[in-house]
Write a structure and sequence with these properties.
Blueprint (H helix, E strand, L loop, with lengths): L11 E3 L7 E3 L8 H26 L21
Antiparallel strand pairs: 1-2
Length: about 80
């Protein structure tokens, strides 16, 4: 047995496709649920902001008519 065999029996697995012996498997680190949701939310917000920006840049602006007060309404139909 190896020097690490002095550890308690929990978490030990017999060697498979390795030299004969008993090995201790390292614990798998898990990502927190809140971190995963936060990353997804941040990604969705960035994509939505980019789409809104592209939409605003592509859309043509509505012309503003600036007439003097005595002009009345702008002409929509030519006489």
């Amino acid at each position: 047995m190896t020097a690490s065999s002095a550890a308690p029996m929990e978490g030990r697995f017999p060697g498979y496709a390795l030299p004969r012996g008993t090995y201790i498997a390292q614990e798998v680190r898990r990502i927190r649920f809140s971190r995963t949701v936060g990353l997804w939310t941040a990604g969705i917000v960035v994509v939505a902001a980019a789409l809104v920006g592209v939409s605003l840049m592509v859309t043509e602006k509505i012309p503003r008519y600036m007439c003097p007060p005595e002009c009345g309404n702008p002409r929509w139909v030519s006489p």
